[in-house]
Structures are given as C-alpha cells and as structure tokens.
Design goal:
The complex is a heterodimer of chains A (372) and B (201).
Chain A: E1 6-9, E2 14-15, E3 21-22, E4 26-32, E5 42-46, E6 72-73, E7 78-79, E8 84-88, H1 119-132, E9 138-144, H2 146-157, E10 162-168, H3 176-191, H4 208-222, H5 225-232, H6 251-264, H7 269-281, H8 292-296, E11 302-308, H9 316-328, E12 332-338, H10 352-368
Helix pairs in contact in A: 1-2, 3-4, 3-7, 4-6
Chain B: H1 5-12, E1 19-23, H2 29-38, E2 41-46, H3 49-57, E3 62-64, E4 79-85, H4 94-104, E5 105-113, H5 118-127, H6 151-160, E6 163-172, E7 175-176, H7 187-190, E8 193-200
Parallel strand pairs in B: 1-2, 1-4, 2-3, 4-5
Antiparallel strand pairs in B: 5-8, 6-7, 6-8
C-alpha cells in the first residue's frame, strides 16, 4: 500500500454479521482539522460505493481534489478550522482497509475467501476505531448514497454516540432495481476471463474489461435522462457523420468508456463485488421486526434527510419512507427534496440549495451544542 | 417579538408542552413562537424550498411537502394539535385535508380569510367582479386561493367532517375579537379572518 495512506489497526477482533470474526482488521483513514480538547467537534463522513477516505484537499493517490472538497475543508461549509473531520475507507474497500485484496492469517490473499460483509459490519468497524481513538461521541455523521446507508445504520445501532445524522440521496433498503443493476456489474466482472475466479492477483492479471463495464452500467444509474441529454444529446464524438461501425460514434459512449477505463486504475474488482453485495443486503428494518420506525426509536439527536428530484437510483420516495419512519419514531427530522435534473450524482455536485440547507442545519445544531 | 394577530389566537389555544404540527409553516415564525412561548414540541411541513431552508437554518425540524399530497407521512395521533394557518383555502382538496388532520391530531387549529366579510360582499354587489380587497389582494386569475369560503361554509364542512367546533375567533387586522362557539350573530359579516379550533368527535 502507498505510504500516503494512513492505517489504523483495530485493537480488537471484528465480529461480522455472517458469523465470521476477523482477528486482524486494518482501516485506511484520513482526518482534517484538529480534535478539540473536550472532543466534541468530530464529524464522521461516510463515503459511497466508489469513494474513499480522501474527502477534502488533494487526493494523494490520484492527485485530484478530494471527492467532497467543495463542501469540506478550511473555510468551507464543513469548516475544518472548526470541525475535526474523519473519513475511513469502508471495510472491504481497496484504499487501505482490510478487504479481499488483503492477506489472511496465513499470508494468503483472501480473494473470494474474504467473508461477505454488510453495511452494519462497516459501521461496526468505524465504531471500534472511535473506541480505539477514545473519541466518546461525534458531533455529526454525514453520508450520501452508500454513505447514507451507513449513517442510517449508525442511527439504528449507535444512537447515543452522535448528535446529528445527515443522510443524503439514500435508502433504508436496496430496491430490486438496484440489486439488478449491481448484479449486471458483478456478472460483467466475473465473465471477464482475467478475473480468474477471483484469484487475479496471484495470477498477475486484472479484470479490467469486466470492472469497466460494471462501472459503465452503474454510472448510467447516477445520472438522469435529462442530464445525459443536456451533456451529450446525440452528439457525435470526433466525427461529422455516423461511421457505420462499433467504435464510440456518440459522445455518450466515449464518456462511459472513459469512466470505465479510469475506474479500473483506482478500484479493485473483488472489492466492487463485496461492497455492492453489502449494499444489496442492506435492509435496515430487517433487524427491527421489519419496522423502520423501531430502527429510529432511540435516536435523540437531529436528523436531516436530503433527496434529489431526478434521482432514480435512490428516488425521493425512498427518502420519504425514511422521513415517515423517523417522524413516527419522534425523531427531530428535517427533510429537503432538492429540485434538480442532475440525478443521483447531484449529491456530489454544486447544488446551492442543498448546500445552504446543510450549512443551516449544521450551524443550528452546533449552536445547540455550544460549538465555537 | 411582534406577530400576526391570528398567531395570538393560535397561541391561546395551545397548552404548554403540546406536540404541534404546523402545516405550511413558511419561514418557521409561528413554530419559533410556539417553542419559546409554550415550550411546544413543534414539527413543520412547508412546500417551498426557501421556506424549508430558512426553517432548517433556525434549527427547526421541518420537512418539505405538499399538504394535498404528503400528510400521509404523519402517523395516526402523532400530534396534540395540527395548525393550518392561512393555507386551507389554497389547497386542492380541503375536505380530504380535514380528514387527514382528524387522523393526525386530536385538535386542529385553522385560520382562513372570510369570504363572507361585508367588504367582499359589497365589492361583488357593486362591481359585479370577483372581489379584490385588502385581505384578498389578488385577481381571480392570479390568486393561489382555489377554495375560498365563508365562516359559515367552513362551519358546515368542519361538522360534516366529524369535528366539533370548540371556538371561532374573529380577527380584524391586528385586533382579536371574542371567541364564540358557532357562526351565529354577525361574525360571518364582520370578521376578515377567523381562527377555528376544532376537536374530533
């Protein structure tokens, strides 16, 4: 692993939902700002499927800006002069955290012998990391998409450990359509001969093509029809007329191919299998007698749920289900449905209405907590 | 702090520490007043993004929603009081909304402009056109008020919908009148605005 990645080794073994216990777990992480003396200003950011811990400033691996650097950083909306921001690479990820690329106790690469993990397992690992760091409670937990699922899991399972929950463009369970899209991605990876039944590291290959196709299929779900149309329409790529062939005639094809090709440089194929599986398994109400309201019953903090009108991946109706359950549980919840044509990706883009609401929510909550 | 006279009538009807839902809470002023003056546990719903953002920035728990579509979000008996201030006349289905209010809270507090006020009647009688008054300043083709009614009309609908009328308070400008139990006397002629306190039967 690159020396730019900070690693924390959990002090205790990690029990997983599948029954397995990981004796040795490492978590890749990054922090921004300073923890104050009474440890009240920490914010945990939970990243999405293809995200990582490099949420602000410059990502040292890609040398590009961190994925939420527009929102988090010095003098930004989440001001790292004020808050101590923590982001951890999820369990099963490929940016320093223990996952299918890691070695097992016998020094053998896990590959498909890595246990199947869940969103709750990821959150349990984050919780243990906070124990190890002796941070008793967080001011806020913020996450979009899969990060939102982690945030909701925190609300359900560790309601006393934090004050604010911000769940953005997310759902309390994965829909059949979402599982279906993930399955297309996984099948694309596994159909690539270079995947080698998951043992591509030992065989010194990599399923570039399969992982790229998986990313292309997923990327379509992140954008709305109108955003794709606005960006590309039926415009041709570097040509004046149709070529009557199967090259990337259209700009949209070229764009997706680029998305796929650049993804394989920074992501592991088996990690993609494991993390998408964790998302598919996510059904927050399942451990609470099937009642989402029960999952939120013990949270006394403040919640903010944000959705985007043109997001068909995690549509506003998914957020409304969360809000309805929180309301019924008596949670102090605010909810915003942002009008935009940018689709699911809107949570990462410049959406002034969303940013203003997030800022107002955090400011009001920090006043309530007496944070300076 | 100073506020609209109908807010005072609403405030008078809310017991200390009550659970209150404010539908159409705008920028959250009434919610804040209820919090500070009555220690109420307040939630709000607002249709406009600006309004929701303003509320969220004040630390109020407000969800974005449309009274005609989204009252289903709230559980049965979730609130002691449901407030609908200057909103019901602008909804698509006032009767359906009354039924939802009955389900969500024990009592409903509803304020509305009175189309039976003498100035409205006179305006129509003399001009023969849809009235434009101080309280109803928009023309018929631009107004957001889809379902204007008189105090008497609303009394009939409230009873039909299974509500008991606890009180009707007339409001004229910043002046609050004496609350009464029905629409008898001259209230339907003299009140510009009315605040209804309803209780489900």
């Amino acid at each position: 692993m690159s020396k730019n990645i900070k690693i924390h080794k959990l002090k205790n073994p990690l029990s997983l939902d599948c029954g397995a216990i990981l004796k040795s777990v490492e978590i890749g992480y990054e922090t921004y700002g300073q923890l104050n003396s009474n440890k009240t200003n920490a914010i945990l950011i939970c990243h999405a499927l293809s995200g990582d811990q490099f949420v602000s400033l410059t990502n040292p691996i890609t040398n590009k800006p961190g994925w939420w650097s527009a929102v988090i950083g010095p003098d930004k909306l989440v001001d790292t002069n004020k808050y101590f921001v923590i982001c951890t690479n999820v369990l099963g990820g490929c940016m320093g955290s223990t996952g299918p690329m890691s070695e097992d106790e016998n020094g053998k690469i896990y590959g498909l012998n890595f246990p199947v993990i869940t969103i709750s397992d990821m959150v349990r690992a984050q919780n243990q990391l906070l124990d190890d760091w002796e941070i008793p409670s967080l001011f806020a937990i913020i996450g979009g998409s899969m990060g939102g699922m982690q945030t909701l899991d925190w609300v359900a399972n560790y309601p006393d450990r934090f004050f604010c929950a911000v769940a953005i463009a997310t759902a309390a369970r994965h829909s059949a359509q979402n599982i279906a899209f993930h399955e297309v991605g996984r099948q694309a990876i596994m159909a690539d001969p270079e995947w080698q039944k998951g043992q591509y590291i030992e065989k010194n290959t990599f399923p570039n093509k399969g992982l790229a196709v998986a990313r292309m299929a997923a990327h379509i779900t992140y954008m709305s029809d109108s955003a794709l149309h606005r960006k590309f329409g039926r415009n041709l790529q570097n040509r004046d007329a149709l070529a009557f062939g199967f090259d990337a005639d259209f700009q949209v094809e070229s764009y997706l191919r680029h998305q796929g090709a650049s993804f394989v440089d920074r992501f592991d194929a088996n990690s993609y299998l494991y993390i998408t599986r964790a998302m598919d398994y996510f059904d927050l109400a399942a451990n609470f007698d099937g009642k989402l309201t029960n999952a939120f019953a013990n949270f006394k903090g403040r919640a903010c749920v944000v959705s985007f009108s043109s997001d068909w991946h995690y549509p506003p109706s998914d957020s409304r289900a969360i809000v309805r359950a929180m309301m019924a549980a008596g949670v102090h919840v605010s909810a915003l449905e942002v009008e935009t044509d940018k689709g699911h990706d809107a949570f990462l883009l410049d959406e002034p209405v969303f940013h203003k609401a997030l800022e107002g929510f955090l400011d009001a909550a920090s006043k309530e907590k007496g944070l300076k | 702090m100073s506020w609209r006279a109908d807010y005072t009538a609403i405030l008078n009807a809310v017991p200390n520490g009550a659970r209150v839902l404010d539908i159409g809470c705008s920028d959250g002023q009434l919610m804040q007043i209820l919090q500070t003056e009555k220690g109420a546990i307040v939630r709000g719903m607002e249709i406009s993004q600006d309004g929701v953002n303003a509320c969220v920035a004040k630390g109020l728990s407000v969800i974005q929603g449309d009274a005609d579509l989204d009252l289903g979000l709230f559980a049965n008996d979730a609130f002691d009081m449901v407030v609908l201030s200057d909103t019901i006349q602008a909804t698509l289905k006032p009767k359906k909304i009354l039924e939802e209010l009955k389900r969500i809270g024990k009592r409903a507090i509803i304020s509305l402009p009175n189309f039976g006020h003498w100035s409205v009647r006179l305006n129509l009688l003399l001009n023969g056109t849809m009235p434009v008054t101080k309280d109803l300043p928009s023309t018929w083709y631009e107004t957001a008020n889809l379902h204007l009614c008189t105090i008497k009309d609303f009394c009939i609908l409230a009873r039909q919908s299974g509500f008991k009328i606890i009180s009707i308070t007339p409001v004229n400008g910043q002046k609050l009148g004496e609350p009464r139990q029905d629409c008898g006397g001259f209230i339907n002629l003299l009140a510009q605005t009315a605040v209804f306190i309803l209780e489900r039967e």
